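Changelog excerpt

This revision adds worked examples to the README so contributors can see how folded entries look when concatenated. The first example is reproduced verbatim below.
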Amino acid sequence: MPTVKLFIAEKSKYDVVPEEDRDIYEWTTSLRLGGNSRMKNSVIGTLLVDLSNGESLDRAVGSFESKVAPANYKRPNALITKSMIKQAEKKVEKLGIENSLYRRFAVTEDITVNNVLFADREAKKKMGAFDTLKSEVVVNEKKYSKVEGVSVDKFIKDILPNVDSVEMMFENRHINNLMSLIAPMQPDAKNIFQWNNNFSWAYNGDVTDSIKERVKAAGGSVTGVLRCSLGWFNYDDLDIHVIEPNGNEIYYGNKSSSTGGCLDVDMNAGGSQSRNAVENITWPRLSTMKEGKYQVFINQYNRREDDNVGFDAEIEYGGEIHRFHYPRRVSGNVRVAEFTFSKKSGIKFGKSMESTIAKKTVWGIFTQQFHKVRLIMNSPNYWDGHKTGNRHVFFILDGCKNDKDARGFFNEFLSNELTKHRKVFEVLGSKLKAKVSDEQLSGLGFSSTKRDFVVCKLSGNFSRTIKINF
């Protein structure tokens, strides 16, 4: 970097100038250097400040690289000016939507019967002593691996109308599917979204979807032929590694391959940057990929916290997403999966991470257990017969409570009139969150863009257990 080299050279000269002569030296040097001394952005300026404060070149550059990592540098909330804020304020005033920006968790009374696919109308029954003991038993999901599978559309159209009660199994792998429905503070607030109502939603970790959307938000590619992504929820520095059939290993020390494979998001490498961290490796072109065995593993490079340990991983090929959940503290290398790739047949998994049935409490409910479903509904962008963007199906669970403030809106939800002010609204969305409340509609959400399934127990004129496929 020529500017940095020039700065270091001039700094060494400046250090030997007598203090009483430094003002005039700075002035004459700036005239002599002219435009060569100008910084293109404030991040480079921080690099020079670190150098001027005596930091070694390696440490200063490491700090600089952490600042320009995709997670910190490509988000649209990086820089907003007073002028941008003023223009956005004028737009908000013109549209009369200021009240719409203040959000809260939605409650049952907010929803009309027209937008509910199912509502559990049974009164809660007082549990007996033996029922209480039964609720402590962990369910092994393998027991239900061969139950009848139906598509979500067939379930909604043909099965759900005849059902009185639904119980859903909340597996460890569903933690990222946790969601909350969000409403405006003022019921009569004007609509700010692309659809015809003022409701929104947020998944666990304040994202619109799971790892795929988190990668996209961090500046990574999610449109390649093959994608291997990692997500975790603390300040640890975890790294995803993929060994290709030719023996080449893609990781932070070798980010690109001749096959087109590329690590494009590497978070928490330079310090404690995010507790909603992701990493991502993609192959954009089928023609350059190598056929044969691929190995995916996760490495614990720097352990910084003991909370929210473990990770989730996704491997996507041809629109099909395979998910892996690891609930324990990461030590050394953890194998996620091995798979064989061919251009004719796609990918076929061999050795993969063992699934876990360890029970944990998330959002007030236990994993690896069945929970009563209060409501089933499409996402608000599919209410009243409208279809805008990707469809989600939400299962609101009894006792499920988001224990964190939730983001009230995302830029991708907002109406086209507000697109010009997206940077300001990105910041507003991160600050004007819905506050935690006891009464809320939270549960599990499933997107039409991801292959997934969930096991449900149904009862009515019949009793059966099915696997709903998304």
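The second example, added in the same revision:
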Amino acid sequence: MKICSLLAGALAAFLFAGCATAQTAATKNIVLIAGKPSHGPGAHEFRAGSLLLQKCLSGVPGVNVTVYSNGWPNVANALDKADAVVIYADGGGGHPAVQGNHKSVLDALAKKGVGLGFMHYGVEVLATNGGPEFKEWIGGHYDHQFSCNPMWSPDYQKFPKHPVANGVKPFSNKDEWYFNMRWRDDTKGLTPILTATPSDDVRDGPYVYPRGPYPHIVAASGREETMMWTYERADGGRGFGFTGGHTHANWGNPNQLKVVLNALLWLAKAPVPANGVESLVSPEDLQQNLDPKKK
């Protein structure tokens, strides 16, 4: 039996015994939309990553996680009962959220109080197509050549008092951690979760694309940056952005895993355990459901 399943089962027993609210509350439905395959083996493994997150939450009482692979669901009414929708996919002009009527669908969900989250490339939309909506839904977005995407190792040492940070310990891993988001003007409700200060070498590039450096990124030397954040909308709805997740193997980092699992529960307004979601994945878990890709 995999470690993820063992710990999820232990968490389920703990919550069942000690949390009457979780037993009696209505089931929270979390929908993960995994994008189409892209990049080489071990990168942008949206389907495998989403299925792994689903597995790690499978033992949490009162929570149901559904994964739709290969982009926007082709199932009628797939999002109707969702309490939270998270898109982990390629973004930019091809973002699933901006195709067809999808912005209208997501905006209607947000107005009903449904939580919206976006991960890795999924935090990037065009400033003129999706940008205004992302600022309303999650407080900000990656803006091409305003934001940047170097491969680096942020040193996450401190965390806010927030349910998404429950139980998260200092960690660092090398990934394509984006920073310098395009934030909304009114930052009330925004909470940085993962923050670190890039070195001047990181600011000088190269970035993944375009290689840079960008003068405004270099000029901000010494400034702390935000790589994950939450947003509480004025209407009570919630959102989050997580810029990591390029490298599939990093889901094996217990603290990266925990902060995202916590975020999924928080987004759906499900209780987050005081010590966070306790779940680890094995090397075998990380090899499951990978997209078939050429090396």
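Reviewer comment on example two: The two ends are 30 Å apart (CA to CA). Confidence is low (pLDDT under 50) at residues 5-24.
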